Amino acid sequence: RIRGAPGPAGAAADPRPARGGPAGRLTRGAAGMSLEDRLHNSIYAAVDEAVSRVAHVGGEWSPDEISKRVVRYMYKAAADPELRTMPWEQACAELVQRSMNGYTSSCGEQPWFYDIDLVPAYTQVAMEIVAASGQMVSPEGVQEIVHAEYEDKLDRNMLDKALWDVVSDMFTVDDKTKGKVFHALQKSYWPALDEALNDGTLHREMTYGLDQATELKRVEAFTRRWLEDGIGRAWVPIEQSEQGLSEETVMELLRRLIAPFGGEHPFSCLPGALTEGLGRPPPDWAFIRTVARQLFRHWNGEGQSAKKKRKKGGGGSPWAEEDDDEGVQKPSAKSRGKKATPKADDPEVEEEDLGVAEEEEAEAEAEAEAEAE
Fold first, then answer.
1. Cα(66)–Cα(52) distance, rounded to whole angstroms?
2. Rounded to whole angstroms, how far apart are CA atoms 145 and 119?
3. Which domain of life does this protein belong to (predicted)?
4. 47 near 118, Cβ under 8 Å?
5. pTM for the complete prediction?
6. Domain residue limits, the chain
7. CA angle, corner 48, sides to 47 and 50, nearest 5?
């Protein structure tokens, strides 16, 4: 029934004011109603319901204003006749992508933006479009595509917000220069993720899942590639900032990217597709220092160091151990199900540590002589 119209005998009146839109889903092909009218009414009803669930969040806009803005962008995309000429999968994806561009720009800073659930609204209008194209598909199939596209857009918007906040807070330069650093990190992010995911383990991941060591290797490969490419693109503006470009700058940048909104907020710029099984790295992740050193050796043309850093004791965290030779974090002995490293008073360990110390001392002397020359 239309909101505000009388209901069945004895039914309570709708306490919310009538806005002229339907309260429920319209019957497809209602007599005398064009496709455009059906689309608009379907969108308005579904969006109105979604807005009512986030009205308590607050913000500068009234529920009416929120509904009008969301409906405007969604209807503009849905009314495009081109969507009805596409295969249904493409039409569903295009509907979300086209409407989310303007919607995100207009409403992305509102406090309710990440709370409102527009998947039912998108699913409903997508079903209208697919039906008008003459294609038969289940609502579940439409909802699956709509949900994936909607979440992807939200994730990308959150990532952009996080990158900008990190760059703005960390580098004391003008907005134009900050924009260069932001775009450098943004443009290098997705190629680095694709490279990490296309490491030849996709079939094993889909069939059996990945072990902790492989997941950790992926995270490190992505992090190294992202920073190498991103900082390489932003080399000049970072050097021009007050902080300059140093190992400490890279380490601080990575720490902030891991938890851009603080330790209490769950979001991380490291992709959830890579960290879902491991969780977010801690602030003292050993690889932070390792990758900073590796990158500067690479940029300085020094190559990899031959020495390894060892941590005594097993420990249960996969983030704890560091291998500076290969640049790949390896899970601890305990997490691999093997015996933990012997205690420090073990003669074999003492002999090994003594050898490492002698190697480090010889290496330091060689570096000092080279520097003097």
1. 10
2. 10
3. Eukaryota
4. yes
5. 0.68
6. 19-170, 174-353
7. 60
